[in-house]
Every structure is written in structure tokens, then in C-alpha cells.
Design a protein that fits this description.
By secondary structure, the chain is mainly alpha-helical. The chain has 21 helices and six strands. 47% of the residues lie in helices and 6% in strands.
């Protein structure tokens, strides 16, 4: 079977020597020619065929285990996976090239990413690896902006990495690996074989990837040490005094041996996640199970290497790999033979319209939000007067639709447009936290058709990812048990791929209830008290806050509700204890960034004492702590949504 996409399945042309400049002069390995695939279509492109074959060859030569795993998937999916692997590896190679100083390596990585951003809309590139990657992105409708932070991390790694503890190490590894694995999962999803994770296996999946990262570090220990790198947390090194110094001198010692035994044990535990593939399609399940078996074999080789580990990377024996791969190939062949696949043809960008911003912006930069259509400019607010956290109850979608004779779901769709506008307005004024009451625990009592429409709208907005090129970190607050697994998967994906962003934190409260949040927090505290980790009589507000689902969420400064109602409806009761309240009569779909600016500007004129004595004589103290009576800008405008 040819290993190029169906639209380019003729035997590949011989690669030009210039296709792999960094490997020029390396001996060419001869591979048996595979049978030709289906007839070549009008999209046949010799340069593209050569690009895909280059990615395939690099995968096979540089990572035989990864190549063997890709061979377990249907031939139609392999080119996309080869392109993704080759792109990730090309970036790593640029970042690891110690023949160049760190600043130059960082510049090369940045230039590679900037070129990818420029080339994505065109669907082509003069660089063969990027050519295959941008074609894969177009063909499989991949959102490569999800790789923005992972790619930027490679650039930042050129300056060196130090980790104080396992938490920092995990964050670094997951930020790098999860987005790339997410692209692979999307390819399966587009082919009609979604790799949906059950809610109870999500942490197991991320821990599995921790094991992948640790196994890779142990395997490449000799090369990393030769470059002066030791990508292990101080927390692990401190368990074995003297090991760090011995490793720096590349000296095998009892402390080093004990450290390696400890680390291989951890990695083996992390990659052996029972139940991870339960309920999964047998094709992807076979790939994951085989990957775990190969990783364990690699860890056995690390354990057996002894002092040689510091001189060269260990590899499992060929017969060991064969024992793992032979039955896996049989299981995979059977699974895929019973599975119809959807393989998209090559999708060329339309020449008659401007290219969509499908890819990541140049490394380290984000686009500014588009200006307001009216030309209105944001108010200039001194940083000390700007609220840190604005929370919004978006009321009135249903009434907006009914007033226009439309179904209620049309109001929710118009409300989604208002969300985009208000997020743009928050970015315009430099707001740090914006929390939106998107779907409450009580909303499940609505008509099932309306609930389904709301969840479908959320799914569509998350898939479209309208804030991909803006400095917006997305977070989700709420329960997972009743939400569709694919929606939860998208929410976690957006959280993972934006968590390194430092601009606006946008928290979507979905299946959220304030009393539920407080009840869960009390239960967590009770469990710790029962375990003897906290003294019940000494629990204070700080203890309670630390056990909230999002303990780092700041208190709400301004709570704004549209739609004319004057209540907080079980929304963020802990965080809103001292919030200024702002009620407006307009329905949410009619709101835009100017309404947010008006609310924030009015907030800046409030004098907040938080129960303290007024700073100036004669200034009235607030009867209700920070602000006295609730702040109402207009009378109520009728019944709720």
C-alpha cells in the first residue's frame, strides 16, 4: 500500500537532494518500492508526494518505534501522522542544534514557525516538512493554532530548563506533548474513529504522556548530558544526594544507579494505565496498548544499560520489539478491516477569497481584536481603577428570540455573537479576568430541544475557536458528569492549549451552580479533616478558598446582569461576596463591548471600602460593606429569560 494520501497515491518520485538540507551527505537507505495505490487524481503533485515520503523516511530512520506504531493505523491516515511527527522533530532539531548559540537557535525556531503561519493559508511551502504539514492541515481540517504554545516552548527551551518539582516538570511536558497528540486524535476523529476519552481516564491519559516524556528523557540522557542538559526536577534529584553532580560529570555511581531505578519505576507506572483504552475503538486502543508495551521494553533497556546509559541511548533487542509488534499488527489489521473510514480529498485554498487565519500567529505575538464596527474607541482607564474580575450573567437570549418570532435557539446563537464582542471589549481595555454564566445546573430543567441546541452551540463555538489568535486563556468551571463527553473533551483541549497565555482569562461556567460549588468544597474539606490533614476547629476562610474547584480565581469586583432581572441566580456566591452589582435592562444578544465599557467606567467611580472606615472625613460608609445599596442602572424590564 502506498504511504501517501489517497489524492496522491501514485509511486513517489525520487526525492531531490535538497529536500533534506540538514541531512545532506547522509547515506541513503534503500527501501522496497510499495505497490501503487489508486489512480492519481487531478490534485497529483510530485513535490507534495516527495514531501510526504521525506516525512515517512525521517520517521522510520529517526524513531523506528514511532514508525512501527504508525504502521498500525490504516494506510490512508499514515501520511498525516508522518507529517505531524516530522514537523515536531524538525522543530526539536532546530532547538537542539548545539553548533549554534542559543539566540541563533531560538531565532531559527521562530523563523520556522513564522514561515508556517505565512504558508498555512496557501497550502504549500518550499520546505518539504512544512509542505506536508500544511497539506495535512488543509486535508484533515486541523487547527494548527492549537500548537502555538507547544511550538513557542521549543523556542524558549533553547535558553535551558530547570524544574524545581514534578509539578513544574509535568506542566512543561504536557504543554509540549498534549497539543501534538491532540492533532493525532483529531485525524482519527475526522476519519470517523473518534478517540474520545472517558471522564475518569483523562488524568490517566495525561499521566501516560508524562511516562512518554520521562522515557524519552531517560533514553536520550547521554545526548542531553553531552549538551549540558539535565531535564529532571530537583525534587527527584534531591532524593539521591550526589546524583546530579555525578551526572554532570557523566560518572556512573550508586547514587546515579538508584536515581535511574527510581525514575524507570515511575515511568513504568505512568505508562501502565489500566483501563485507559476501555470502551475505545479497538484500532486506536491497539495503538495505545502497543505504545505502552514498547515503552516498557524501552525502560527495560534503560535499566539493563547500566554505565552505558551515560554513553549512548539504549535500544530494546529486535526480538523483544517483534514479540510486541507481531500480535499488535494482527489485532490492528482485524480492527481496521471492520471499520469504514472517511478520508477527505486534498482541499486547496480558494484563490478567489482571502485566506482564513487558520494557523498560529508568529511566535510570541497575538492579534489585536477587530475594532468596533461603529469606530468607537475604548475608554482610557488607569490600571489602578480597572476591575480585576468582571462576571456576567448573560440573561435574555430566549426573550430576544421570542420578541422577533424566532425559536429560542436563535437567541442563544445571537448571544454567542455578543460573547465574542464583549471578549473583544475586555481585551481592548486590558481586563484580566472575565467569567461568563454560560449554562447553569438549573438550565437542565429547560425543554430538551433547547438544551440540545445550547450544547450544540457550545460545541460549535469551541470547535471554531474564535479566539485562537487572541491572547485569551480559556477555562471551564462546572461539573462534567452530565455534559456530553465530546464537549468535555473540547473544553479540556481549549484549556490545555491556552493555559500558557497571559492576557485575558475567560472562564466559561458550564453546568455550574454556586451552591454545588460550595457543597463540593465543603465535602473536600470534610474528607481532609477525616484523613487528619486539617483540624476542623481551625478551618478559616483561607482553608475554604484553597479547596474551591478553582482556588486561583480572584474575587469578583463587578457582577453585571443583563435582561432587567435583579438577582445573582446562584452565580459565584463565594467570589461575589463584595462585588459591585450592575443590572441593565437590555437583553444579552443586544449587548456589545460598549456596554462592558460603560459598566466598567461606572465601576471606576465607585468608592469601595470593603467594610472599612472611609478614607476621608464625611464620606458615607457603605451599609452593605463595600458599596451600600446595590447599584442599579435601570429598572427591571419584565420576567426572566
Amino acid at each position: 500500500m502506498s504511504d501517501v494520501p489517497p489524492a496522491t497515491t501514485a509511486p513517489a518520485d525520487r526525492e531531490a537532494a535538497s529536500a533534506s538540507p540538514e541531512r545532506a551527505g547522509a547515506p541513503e537507505r534503500t527501501e522496497p518500492r510499495e505497490p501503487a495505490g489508486p489512480p492519481v487524481t487531478g490534485d497529483d503533485d510530485p513535490a507534495l508526494r516527495a514531501a510526504y515520503r521525506l516525512c515517512r523516511r525521517r520517521t522510520k530512520e529517526q524513531d523506528p518505534a514511532e514508525y512501527a506504531l504508525i504502521q498500525l493505523v490504516p494506510a490512508a491516515l499514515r501520511p498525516a501522522l508522518h507529517a505531524l511527527w516530522a514537523a515536531a522533530n524538525a522543530l526539536d532539531d532546530l532547538g537542539d542544534d548545539r553548533t549554534a548559540p542559543a539566540a541563533e537557535r531560538a531565532a531559527r525556531v521562530g523563523a520556522w514557525i513564522t514561515a508556517l503561519h505565512r504558508e498555512l493559508p496557501t497550502g504549500a511551502s518550499p520546505d518539504p516538512v512544512r509542505h506536508a504539514l500544511v497539506d495535512t492541515a488543509h486535508r484533515w481540517r486541523l487547527d494548527l493554532s492549537e500548537l502555538r504554545d507547544a511550538m513557542a516552548q521549543v523556542r524558549d527551551d533553547t535558553r535551558g530548563r530547570d524544574f524545581a518539582d514534578w509539578a513544574q516538570w509535568r506542566a512543561w511536558g504536557r504543554d509540549n506533548l498534549l497539543p501534538w497528540f491532540g492533532q493525532v486524535r483529531t485525524v482519527f476523529d475526522r476519519a470517523g474513529v473518534p478517540v474520545a476519552l472517558r471522564l475518569d481516564t483523562r488524568e490517566a491519559y495525561e499521566e501516560f504522556l508524562d511516562g512518554v516524556r520521562l522515557t524519552d528523557i531517560l533514553t536520550d540522557l547521554s545526548a542531553d548530558l553531552a549538551q549540558g542538559d539535565l531535564l529532571l526536577p530537583a525534587e527527584a534529584l534531591d532524593r539521591h544526594p550526589g546524583a546530579a553532580a555525578d551526572l554532570a560529570r557523566r560518572r556512573w555511581s550508586p547514587a546515579v544507579a538508584a536515581l535511574i531505578t527510581y525514575l524507570t519505576g515511575l515511568a513504568r507506572q505512568w505508562v501502565s494505565q489500566e483501563g485507559l483504552t476501555r470502551g475505545m475503538h479497538p484500532g486506536p486502543a491497539t495503538v495505545l496498548e502497543t505504545m505502552a508495551a514498547l515503552l516498557r521494553a524501552q525502560l527495560d533497556a534503560v535499566d539493563a544499560a547500566g554505565p552505558d546509559l551515560l554513553r549512548s541511548p539504549p535500544r530494546p533487542a529486535l526480538h523483544t520489539r517483534a514479540r510486541v509488534l507481531a500480535p499488535a499488527r494482527a489485532r490492528a489489521a482485524l480492527a481496521w478491516s471492520l471499520t469504514p473510514l472517511t478520508v477527505p480529498p486534498r482541499r486547496r485554498p480558494a484563490a478567489h477569497r482571502p485566506p482564513a487565519p487558520a494557523g498560529p500567529a508568529p511566535t510570541g505575538t497575538f492579534r489585536r481584536p477587530p475594532p468596533h464596527p461603529s469606530g468607537a474607541r475604548p475608554p482610557e482607564i488607569a490600571p489602578g481603577l480597572l476591575p480585576a474580575h468582571v462576571a456576567v450573567i448573560m440573561d435574555g437570549n430566549g426573550r430576544w428570540a421570542q420578541q422577533r418570532g424566532l425559536p429560542r435557539h436563535a437567541g442563544h446563537r445571537a448571544g454567542a455573537t455578543a460573547v465574542r464582542e464583549v471578549v473583544h471589549g475586555a481585551l481592548d481595555i486590558g481586563l484580566r479576568h472575565l467569567t461568563l454564566y454560560t449554562f447553569s445546573t438549573e438550565n437542565w430543567h429547560r425543554d430538551p430541544e433547547e438544551v440540545d441546541a445550547i450544547l450544540d452551540l457550545l460545541r460549535g463555538e469551541l470547535a471554531e475557536n474564535p479566539f485562537r489568535d487572541l491572547d485569551v486563556r480559556l477555562r471551564w468551571h462546572g461539573r462534567a458528569g452530565r455534559l456530553p463527553p465530546d464537549l468535555v473533551d473540547l473544553l479540556h483541549l481549549r484549556e490545555r492549549t491556552t493555559r500558557a497565555r497571559t492576557g485575558l482569562t475567560l472562564t466559561m461556567c458550564i453546568d455550574y451552580g454556586g451552591r454545588d460549588e460550595l457543597t463540593r468544597t465543603a465535602a473536600a474539606l470534610a474528607a481532609r479533616a477525616r484523613a487528619g490533614r486539617v483540624e476542623p476547629g481551625l478551618i478559616d476562610e483561607d482553608d475554604f478558598a484553597r479547596h474551591l474547584p478553582h482556588p486561583d480565581m480572584p474575587d469578583v469586583d463587578l457582577l453585571w446582569r443583563t435582561g432587567g432581572e435583579q438577582r445573582i441566580s446562584n452565580f459565584l456566591p463565594w467570589h461575589s461576596a463584595y462585588a459591585e452589582l450592575h443590572f441593565t435592562p437590555g437583553l444579552w444578544p443586544d449587548a456589545d463591548r460598549r456596554d462592558l465599557w460603560q459598566a466598567v467606567t461606572a465601576y471606576t467611580r465607585r468608592r469601595r471600602h470593603l467594610g472599612a472606615t472611609p478614607a476621608q472625613p464625611g464620606e458615607p460608609a457603605g451599609a452593605d460593606g463595600p458599596s451600600g445599596a446595590p447599584w442599579v442602572t435601570a429598572p427591571a424590564a419584565g420576567p426572566g429569560d
